[in-house]
Structures are given as C-alpha cells and as structure tokens.
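pipeline stage [seq->struct] | target=SpdC protein | organism=Streptomyces luteolus | residues=51
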Amino acid sequence: MDVPLWLALLVVGYLGVKLIRPPWWLIAVILLGGFLLADSVLAPVVDGFIK
C-alpha cells in the first residue's frame, strides 16, 4: 500500500497531539523552528546528520 507522505505526517501528527497532549505553543514553536531551519545555512548540517 502506497501512502502519500503528507497523509502519513498528518495522521502521525494528529495522533501525537491527541495522545500526548502537548501545549499548542510548543507545537507552533516546533513547526516554525523546522520551517526556519530548513531555509537556513544549517540545513546541510542537519541533512547530513539525519542521513
């Protein structure tokens, strides 16, 4: 079964919020931080670390 990445991330994010119940400000900080980090000079370093 082929599941699109956006759908898998949406399901995992929804379940994470429902089960763990993090504060909404923490979710916003993580999303905004990831968005800003992806377009920064540190992106190749993070990419190399993840791979």
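stage status: PASS
auto-comment: The helical segments are 5-20, 24-38, 43-50. The chain has three helices and no strands.
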